[in-house]
Amino acid sequence: MGTLSGKSIIVTGAAGAIGYATAQVLAREGARLLLVDVQAEGLAARERELAATGAEVASCRADVSRSADVQGYVAAALRHHGRIDGLFNNAGIEGHIAPTWEYDEAEFDRVTRVNVNGVFLGLRHVMPVMLRQGSGAIVNTASIGSKRGLAGACTYNASKHAVVGLTRTAAAEAGPKGLRVNCVMPGVIDTPLLEGVLGPLFNGDIALGKRTLGKIAPLERIGRPAEFGEVVAFLLSDAASFVTGAAWAIDGGALCTIRH
Predict the structure, then answer these.
(1) Where are the domains of the chain?
(2) Is 8-187+224-252 in CATH node 3.40.50.720?
(3) Sequential DSSP letters for the chain
């Protein structure tokens, strides 16, 4: 407990299930948080919920694909906490499902702006603060799609491959200056978004959908958002002081084998 005590950490995509579950873990470990999301109402609710637990938390509405908004959340973190020790660069979207030869060009651009530009802009504007401090840790959210081809998701796959490349480049550049940059690759995680996808695919039997998807992993289940958050908290903590440039799968073993 308290592995992040007093550290100032930004969480983007904080109104979503994974972002919020991770924020809860970070708060439990003593972090001072700035929550960021484009969804103002959901963001405000998350801030209230965390504050009610005694966490030191503030929020900033921002569209991570816009440089001015990213600079705004960096300024907010400095205003509230005086420094930035960690960034969970998590905001992202899935996009539509369609074959590559039918994929809408505007949708490709939309997903790329959030998933690639958003991660880049987070790095671009947070890293100078950390470089001045001489320390800092960043975790970007990639995907098991960073290592595989998921049919129908060309822009999502491409964007999540790019997150791994951005992570490795930033880690190589900033390591000698005292910064660590890693990424995490979630597999199938139990979120409301997943349930929305499974309903139509399994004729409303969401439980069957979860069991079916769980079978792609040797652990034979889907993951919980809090399990994801525990790994992120570790990577942002000093306990991971010799880990950088890594892409950690949080997938129940799905990427380790060919299964079902």
Answers:
(1) 8-187+224-252, 190-222
(2) yes
(3) --TTTT-EEEEETTTSHHHHHHHHHHHHTT-EEEEEES-HHHHHHHHHHHHHTT--EEEEE--TTSHHHHHHHHHHHHHHHSS--EEEE--------B-GGG--HHHHHHHHIIIIIHHHHHHHHHHHHHHHHT-EEEEEE--GGGTS--TTBHHHHHHHHHHHHHHHHHHHHHGGGTEEEEEEEE-SB--HHHHHHHHHHTTT-HHHHHHHHHTTSTT-SPBPHHHHHHHHHHHHSGGGTT--S-EEEESTTGGGS---
Q: Which residues are catalytic?
A: 156
Q: Tokens 């001045």 label which residue?
A: 132
pLDDT tens digits, the chain, 260 residues: what are they? 569 999 999 999 999 999 999 999 999 999 999 999 999 999 999 999 999 999 999 999 999 999 999 999 999 999 999 999 999 999 999 888 899 999 999 999 999 999 999 999 999 999 999 999 999 999 999 999 898 888 888 999 999 999 999 999 999 999 999 999 999 999 989 988 788 778 877 888 999 999 998 998 999 999 999 999 999 999 999 999 999 999 999 999 999 987 65
